[in-house]
Amino acid sequence: MKIITRTGRTRERRRTAAGLLFACSALATPAVAQTASPFPPQGGSLPSVADATAPTSQTTLGGGTGTQPASGTAGAADDPNRDDPNVATGAVPGPVPDADQEPPYEEDLNQPYEQPLDPGAEPIDAREQPREPGDPTGIRLGSFLLRPTVTNGVNTEITRSNGSERRRDYFSTVIRGTLSSDWSRHSLTVTGEGTLERNFRGGDEGERPEANIDADLRLDLADDTIAHITGGYSFSREDDYDPNAIGGATTQSGVNEFTGGLSVERDLGKIHGTAALDLSRAIYTDAKLSDGTVVSMKDRNRSGIDGRLRLGYELSPALIPYVEVATGHTFYDQKRDNSGYARSSQSYAARGGVEFDFGEKLRGEIGTGYEFVDYEDSRLKSVNAITFNGNAIWSPQRGTDVNLGLRTTVQDSTTPGQSGWVEYQATAGLTHEMRDHLVARLTGSSTYRDFSSGGSDETVWVAGAGLTWAINRYLDLTGDVEYEQADGGGSDERIVRAGVGLTVKR
User: Fold this and answer.
1) Phi, psi at residue 289, to the nearest 5°?
2) Of 304, 336, 505, 302, which is closest to residue 416 (Cα–Cα)?
3) Which of 136, 150, 331, 355 is the most exposed place for a label (fewest CB within 10 A)?
4) Is 265 left (phi over 0), alpha (psi -120 to 50) or beta?
5) Sign of the CA dihedral running 320, 326, 332, 338
6) Which letter does DSSP use for residue 297 in this model?
7) Tens of pLDDT, residues 422-459
8) Domain 144-505 classification at class level
């Protein structure tokens, strides 16, 4: 019979308590492991989250010194982790890596941690987002790119004048094109447009063909010096209410205009200088009366030469005030016209203004000045006027563009005893993308003719609207309506035009 003394019972209780403590420690280690940081252990001088929460080998969970209990205790015999070296050292057990698995990459907390960049707030209006570039169009011709378009339309025109009304229906063909170079230095741009009309109801009265072509050769002579060589041709027919039109003519005179010019732009620091020379030539065709009579207009043929100098100072890259002086001379082919007046003239002009460029939102220039035209015939009164000239392109938002223009010119008259008149013209155009493939247009202009040397003043108003639907990248469907009104100067005309067309582009 085995006798257990009081001292033995005490030792047995101590061994049982120690075993229970180690068993509780083994059960608590998984919960401690779950509190570790999701980032891998750091290799730097700062401790990791796991190091801060796990007990060290110098301190036991019970608060005493970390001595290993005897293997013969009851608690140690029931512990499944008794052979785990982590338990022996008091460390938190972790997953055992495979033999062929690379050790986890350790980041250095002393180095900045890469965070994803903030993409920023999304725009409220999706139309403000930059668009993906579309497929390029055009025809490659060596180092040039040609972009042609052809529009065929069916139109109607109703004209009311002095209590009478006439109507014509006609086909129209409009050909446009742009030819631009792709050179590493210098550039050449050629733009052209032509309109042909053919009446299928209302006779051949009122047909107005038009043509226009311009070329601009830019020469980069130096870093701060640019030269432009320009040339152009245009054809148009005078309107029935034009001050120089022939009354009762079924076909008004056509005007052939040839232009050419040379300009040099030079920048000297903040000073911008421009010198330009322009040449012009106007040839008039015969007019035809209702009874078949042909009226010659050769006495109106003339040539002109103009020169101008501009000097600007750059207050900032967006604002450049300038001053400009110009002079010119007009030579008529015939010394005197059919009425016996010598209409060759000399002109002088001075103006000042400002150029502005605020990026894509607003750019252009505006100026005012004074112009004086003196005629060779002493019987013709000189014409002088305050001038307004300028242009601006404003884009209040993406997909919306506003074009504004001001122009002042002095026109020669063919009326006996009258030298000429001052013509003020204001134009405006608005284009708005209603949808990605639908563009709306609004246009308007006002022309005021001031006959200071005699005759009543005249005002011409024009307003129009249109839509363009891009069926695909090569085909557009267009619709337009326009209203034109002329008051004063002995004319009273109201013209309404409307039509639809199909545009093929490449």
Assistant:
1) -85, 170
2) 336
3) 136
4) beta
5) positive
6) -
7) 999 999 999 999 998 999 999 999 999 998 766 688 99
8) mainly beta
**Contacts within 8 Å (CB) and 24+ apart, 49-56:** 50/92, 54/91, 54/92, 55/90, 55/91, 55/92, 56/90
Report which secondary-structure segment, H or E, holds 15: helix 6-34
**Contacts of range 361-367, beta carbons closer than 8 Å, 24 or more positions apart:** 361/394, 361/395, 361/396, 362/392, 362/393, 362/394, 362/395, 363/392, 363/393, 364/390, 364/391, 364/392, 364/393, 364/404, 365/322, 365/390, 365/391, 365/392, 366/390, 366/391, 366/392, 366/406, 367/322, 367/324
Q: Can you read off the two tokens belonging to residue 17? A: 């308590």
Phi and psi, residue 19, nearest 5°: -65, -40
| Residue 369: CB atoms within 10 Å | 19
Residue 77 φ/ψ, nearest 5 degrees: -70, -30
The closest of 199, 147, 143 to 175, measured between CA atoms, is 147
300: closest CA among 261, 331, 270, 346? Answer: 331
pLDDT for residue 222:
85
* pLDDT category of residue 49 using cuts at 50, 70 and 90: very low
CA distances to 235, 353, 394, 403 from 178, in Å? 18, 31, 23, 20
Given the structure tokens 């209409």, which residue do they identify? 343
CB 459 within 8 A of CB 448: yes
Task: Please say whether the beta carbons of 52 and 61 come within 8 A.
Answer: no
10-33 average pLDDT score: 54
Q: Is the dihedral of CA 381, 413, 492, 423 positive or negative?
A: negative
Domain borders along the chain are 6-89, 144-505
Could you give the CA distance from residue 149 to residue 468 in angstroms, rounded to a whole number?
14
Coil, strand, or helix at residue 86? helix
Instruction: Report the Cα 428 to chain-centroid distance in Å.
Output: 17
For residue 153, give both structure tokens.
């339309």
Tell me the backbone φ, ψ of residue 163, rounded to 5 degrees. 85, -5
Which has the closest alpha carbon to 68: 11, 14, 19, 17? 19
